[in-house]
Design brief:
Oligomer: heterodimer
Structural class of chain A: alpha/beta
Number of helices of chain A: 16
Largest interface: A-B, 73 and 84 residues
Strand order of the largest sheet of chain A: 4-5-7-6-8-9-10-11
Structural class of chain B: mainly alpha
Largest sheet of chain B: none
Helix content of chain B: 55-70%
Shape of chain B: elongated
Number of helices of chain B: 4
Shape of chain A: elongated
Strand content of chain A: 5-15%
Distance between the termini of chain B: 38 Å
Radius of gyration of chain B: 22 Å
Distance between the termini of chain A: 83 Å
Number of strands of chain A: 11
Amino acid sequence: MDMAALQALSPDVFETAASGYRTLSDMAGQAKDDLENGVSAKMRAAGLAGMASEAAHLALHELEQNYHYVQVECGLVDVALRALAGDFRSARKLLTDALADAESCGFTVGSDGSVGYPPLKGGDDGTFPGGTVHGNGANRHRTPLPGVPLSVSPPVYVRLEATMGPLGARAQSIADRIDDALTEATAADEKWAAHLRMLTADDDLTVSAADWDNVGQDTTELSDDTSTLLASIPPPPTSGDVQKNALWWKSLSPQEQDEYLTMYPSVVGAMDGLPSDVRDEANRTVLDETRGKYQSELDAMPPEPDDGSVDHILWKTKHDQLTGALNGMNAIEDRFDRTGTNGLPEAYLLGFDPVGQGDGNVILANGNPDTADHVAVIVPGTTTNISGIGGNINSSVNLWQASAQQAPGAKVSTISWFNYNAPNNIYWQAPQDQYAHAGAPALQGFMDGSREAHLQATGGQTAHTTIIGHSYGSTLIGDTIKQNHDFPADDVIALGSPGMQADNVGQLGYTRDHFFAEGGGGSDNLVRIGGSAVGLGGDGNIPTSLGFGATVMDGNVPSHGDYFDMNPDGTPSQSLQNQAAVVTGNYGNVKKEWPY
Amino acid sequence: MTFDAEWARIKQEVAAGGPVTRLASADDGGTGGGSGDVVSTPQAWRAAAAGVEAVAGNAAKALSTLSFLQEGVQGMKVTGVECVGAQSRLYDSWNDYMNRVRSRTTALQGQFTSAGKAQHQGDSGVGSSLNNVGEDSLIASHISSVVNGDAYKDTPELGGGPDTWET
């Protein structure tokens, strides 16, 4: 790039253009939400059914994908253009500073960046002829700073002073700085032109897995070169303090929030204390990019090798990992597509990581927890993993339906929380406490963050909050409460619990009125008796033990996996009704076991 | 064949006791018979059409803003800067993409509007169940054209592909 080009280049116009892409990105984000939570959901709420309705939902889904693609990619374009403007601005500053110095010295600057200086005759500095010098690339790294006297400049200029005189040496230093500016501008130009070419739109309207994979790669490739731009944004707190997280986010300008979310969606999506709609936005991007990546990897896998070979074992491991995670991701998408059915509110994806602590991380809310009157968080148990997460999401949907029936008019949010390494084996691993112990900080962080986000959204109010642990999930809850003694849940429900690391509710800081337990038949007996025997409880007591001091509910649950089932006629089971009664604070509706 | 004309043809076939036309463009899965209940109200389709129309309107506004905010960089008189050309191609690509998305949005709105209208008109003289099934299947095939039409086919090229926007 020559001097005339760098002088004519206006960083401002690139920033203005960037704002255009941000406008497009924001519109597309809104359009995606409107189509999903407005149009599609309302068609379901209106009860439309049949082939036309199915075709409509499919078409709307395709359109949502178009808008989501525009939202994410144009967000990247915005950040890229701003970073580009910043780099050009920095190069232009080098140039204008050098030109100003040349002018103040009475030097002339040629269009090629050469610097002409007048002769020096007599005086203390001696006699030297005038001349013209060009930037010397070899000395670029030794260029003195503007305003620094030559006497303290790098040795090269001191030496030059002896041969060219002080004017010649200064002219050389200015010419070198002009050269620096042009070199920096040229490098920025090449780098950003490559990025901009990478960010051009797809040439077709089908947003395929490969397209999303490509979006993820674009983000990764941009992140190094946008670090200077993002360095001006204060970094997020690392302490895990949810209030600090919330205040950090609020302290950012809308543009900084956009830039941070665009470049680091997985960080924003996982940050406890941030508004749920912000986390949802970030996690949906991570979800689509991850799905694209995994599907592309699956599509690219070679044919299955012969059974029994090492290659086959490796192939199968990878294949199962990819298909398992994709199952989970598809289940999340399916939930998005159910909004509106039987009044189901919009979904918020509050956590997503295909690997997480090992089994994956999926946190999904039905209804906005930040503004809800009642929040319920369900923690699943043994053998939970991302592949089967659809079942856990379904449980939270059923609980929402049951709760909405018991509290018409109230805002209810039910959350399926899964972000710990659940025991994979009911016989060997579940009897150990280590899984619960390791998972406790993440659960505590989420619950604290949920409370903080509610306080921020409502101007200081908290939601009535219930934590529900199924099976080993209740052990995790017990461990978490014991580790922190400040657990933000008003009510606790333990379902099919093998023990909660405590021998009574008082040890966990609760009273019988706000601590509920339920047991089931069949396999549920094995889990509870087994848990009690191996010491997951305390002093042999588990939540359904008389001595534990919980209110034991009668849910008539046939076996360990049936706590969240609907009745065959689609009405909530007694177990769901009991939970919903607690969740909505209608404690009188709980069906208790004798003698409670 | 227009929506109205095609619907009129189906009505005649049904009235004459013939089978409901199997629609070539519809998914092979369930066109002939109709799967499950058909529940449909003109109001719901009209509301959906209005929702999609609002999205298309916002898209048009955002495109105008993008174009307006682009004027500075397009009008910059500078040579020898790669980013200026790259930015221009970037703009062309997104302007084109968004225009096509907006067209798709408008097309879907049109299908939803037609769906509401067709049901609003009602049809005497045609058996109600066949009426529903035929109508439902016809509307479905039209809506599906906004997904399966030639204009929406996937190509191997991805965004930022070397051959897409280089001229």
